Amino acid sequence: MMKSRPMAATLAFFTAAGLMLGGCSAPSGGDAGGEKKLTFMFRGGEDEKKAYEKAVEQFEAANGVDVDIIVTTADQYTTKLKAAIAGKQVPDVFYIGPGDVQAYVQNGIVKDITEYVEGSDTIDLENIWEYGVDSYRYDGKRVGEGAIYALPKDVGPFSFGYNKTMLEKAGIPLPDKDKPYTFDEFVAAAKKLTADTNGDGTLDQWGTGLNVQWNLQPFVWSNGGDWLNEDRTKVTVDTPEFAESLQWFADLQNVHGVTPSVAEAQTLDTYQRWMKGEIGFFPIAPWDLSTYQKLGFEWDVIPYPAGDTGKTASWIGTLGVAVSESTKHPEEAVKLVEYLTANKEAQQSLVDAGIQIPNLKDMAETWAADTTTKPANKAEFLQIVKDYGRALPGGNTFNGEWYDELFTNIQPVLDGKQTAADYLKEAQPRMQEFLDAANQQAGN
Amino acid sequence: MSTITRPRRSRLHRKEHQAALAFVAIPVIGFLLFTLFPLLFSVYASFTNWNGISAPVFKGLDNYTKMFGDRYFLKSLWNTLYMMIGIPIGLVISLALALAMNRKMRGTTFFRTVYYLPVISSIAAVAILWQWAFNGDFGLINQGLALVGIDGPNWLQDTATVKPALIIMAVWKGLGYSMLLYLAALQSVPRYLYEAAALDGATAWQQFRHITVPMVAPVTFFLIVTSVIGGSQIFVEINIMTPTGGPEFESASIVWYIWQKAFDNLQMGYASAMSVVLGLLVFVITFIQFRLNRRNQFSID
Question: Which residues of B touch A443 (CB under 8 A)?
């Protein structure tokens, strides 16, 4: 008898982890008893597992193929996949990120599935987000163009939101969902929200509180800056536009004081404070939606504040499902990919779980028009995917080392101990060195 | 008679020999397959440009020359060295604990179990636990500090405290093991040495200094050697508690950096070269320790 539920959950977790470890050692694609067999390796949480198990069951029934599912934790996935590749036991179907496409295609790990998916009777390629499909195109030179090597498991538009209840209480006119704030307007609104509401002498409500690694991109882009030049050979973080937006980002804390102080933000991260209703403006991504349904205040989605260009910007994350070059049953494997990425019921169950937006355009339109679930402005997510979203800068190069370098030593800028311009001038050559090495490895 | 028995005994002998060889073969084959081959292969890989999935391309000493200009390599090496401060601290505490446990008092079995618990716990689970304990706002450690009026830092996010935090955890994790070995060593110190010393009027401190410490010296030596080897390979706790290598790369250990290069950034060749260097460093340090130890033993005698 289990004494308590947490206890049982812990036990179950470790048992499952043990099983997974055991299962991972033998991802073979062999056929038992003449029946066709595929392996599918992915990482993810409970909701994804549930949805995919359903999709896989349907696929098995419809195609008479047996599928072995291998699930790993997020942090172990790359290590396990690399080990499988090194051991020449590549799973037939597995996750890849846009950043892996170059390396995997060049080394003949993933299969060109263009022919299969374009002529497929299971899916309508036109009905899947172009951004998602294009992320897995590669023409031998550049990711984003050419043959298709995977279908998107999801597209994750990263958007911005606000605490409606708090803004109303502070008497601030609600932001327009079609016209982004300027940087100045945003600071002004955030200043009004930053307050000591219970009169105990310390602040307990702030305008915003943003993590640099996931929020800097929209501000830089909308201010006319970028990480790389057009052909991805030069790091361009030392431009005035870039420096201006990073400085503005740091000033939110150091000059305008509209975010929790360094000490406060470090103690209880701003994500927790946002959920407690202490933060006015905060990023909102599709995978937050299920958690945010239970928030104790009203909230909605708006475009990111925009810098000098006046045009809002944001990024889209994505993961893809690819087929291995070495699979014995390419046709079935591609079909499985189609089930996983575009099966209506699987998509519906993922959307109902509140962790992603639908992959299928028509389904997404219906979802966005549904007013029974929050947020009201779901259309913003679709606009990001359709119009203005971009890939994370590190995702389209051979590796992301040059991109990570920017954030490794950025803390002094955020603390106001170094100016953004100074720091970026220092960081650019180091990033360039990493980028050159990556491009050289990619053979560009 | 002997002509009849000889072949029989010999056959038995041969059979036993074969069985013995079979038993010996298992670990030897295991060693060749899972240790020596990967070792030699990584030495080969260290001279190549290899991303882990392609065919390695021979590059000579490129990876090795690159290493000395790589500031993150040097920094992670320094971080690893820094975190070894925990080794002497841990030894002193565990010897003190062992002395306490060695007394005849109630509850020692209980305490022995308590101190040994971290050793057998999964390092991954323990690391997650400590990550919470080190949380700046509602972490156990800062709550404890708050009781005595100290406003604790945000341990894992602060460049000044992230390494001490990891050291504290490593000491805690290793305490039980060292304590148990010291305890065994203490119990094998002959009573008569203390009795003789007491008769000669030695104080408790003098007894400790001149009897206990030299008598447990072999254990101390063993612990230092194994902890240095283990400490130079610190990885799991770092990867879990500070997954990006800590603020400004302050907690990245050398093995963490190797792992990141190999699996995140597709530079298996370079990572292999760094592992070879790390292996050589550990070998040299261990060699020096053995030499020093030999000299020490002479001086005791």
Answer: none
**A215 assigned to some structural domain:** yes
In the numeric block, the tokens 């109303």 are attached to A168
* Same-domain status, B123 and B91: yes
Q: What is the count of residue pairs from A and B with beta carbons less than 8 Å apart?
A: 58
B154 touches chain A (CB under 8 A): yes
Question: Phi and psi for A177 in degrees, rounded to 5?
Answer: -80, -10
Q: What is the dihedral of CA A274, A279, A284, A290, to 10 degrees?
A: 30
- Say if residue B189 is in the same domain as residue B74: yes
Instruction: Count CB neighbours of A19 within 10 A.
Output: 11
For residue B19, being part of any structural domain is answered with: yes
Closest by CA position to B285, among listed B123, B61, B87, B39: B87
Same domain? B111 vs B162: yes
Chain A closest-CA separation from residue B273 CA (Å): 17
**CB–CB contact A267 B154 (8 Å):** yes
Q: Does B264 touch chain A (CB under 8 A)?
A: yes
Q: Which of residues 22-51 of B touch A (CB under 8 A)?
A: 49, 51
- How many Å apart are CA B278 and CA B259, to the nearest integer? 13
Asked if residue A204 belongs to a domain, the reply is yes
Task: Determine the structural domain holding residue A434 and report its residue range.
Answer: 159-316+392-442
ipTM: 0.71
Q: Which residue has the tokens 């636990």?
A: B129
CB contact under 8 A, B264 and A411: no
Mutate which: A77, A100, A267, vs B, most B CBs within 10 A: A267
CB contact under 8 A, A86 and B52: yes
What is the 8-class DSSP label of residue A182?
A: B
Q: Do A107 and B266 touch (CB under 8 A)?
A: no
Domain presence at residue A5: no
Q: Is A71 within 8 Å of A20 (Cβ atoms)?
A: yes
Whole-number Å distance between alpha carbons of A286 and A317: 10
Per-residue pLDDT of chain A (444 residues; tens, 9 = 90+): 334 444 444 444 444 444 333 334 344 444 444 578 999 999 887 777 887 888 888 889 888 899 999 988 877 888 888 888 888 889 999 999 888 888 889 888 999 999 999 988 888 889 999 999 999 999 988 888 899 999 999 999 999 999 999 999 999 999 999 999 999 999 999 999 999 988 888 888 999 999 898 999 999 999 999 999 988 899 999 999 999 999 999 999 999 999 987 666 655 678 888 999 999 999 999 988 888 988 999 999 999 999 999 999 999 999 999 999 999 999 999 999 998 898 888 888 888 888 889 999 999 999 999 888 889 999 999 999 999 999 999 888 888 899 999 998 898 898 899 999 999 999 999 999 999 988 888 775
- Domains in chain B, number: 2
**Which residues of chain B does A104 touch, with a Cβ-Cβ cutoff of 8 Å?**
53
Q: Which of A401, A408, A441 sits opposite B51 (nearest CB)?
A: A441
Peptide bond into A180 cis (omega under 30): no
Contacts of B251 in chain A (CB under 8 A): none
Q: Does residue A112 sit within a domain?
A: yes
**Residue B115 within any structural domain of the chain:** yes
Residues from chain B that touch A85, judged by Cβ atoms under 8 A, are 52-53
* Overall domain count for chain A: 2
Query: How many CB atoms within 10 Å of residue A370?
Result: 10
Q: Are residues B12 and B128 both part of a single domain?
A: no
B108 with B19, same domain? no
Give the end of a domain, one of A353, A373, A389.
A389
Cβ-Cβ contacts under 8 Å, A271 against chain B: none
How crowded is residue A233: how many other Cβ atoms within 10 Å of its Cβ? 13
Quick one: B71 and B41 in the same domain? no
Same domain, A41 and A107: yes
A286 shares its domain with A178: yes
**Cβ contact (<8 Å) for A411 and B248?**
yes
Q: Which domain holds residue B15?
A: 2-45
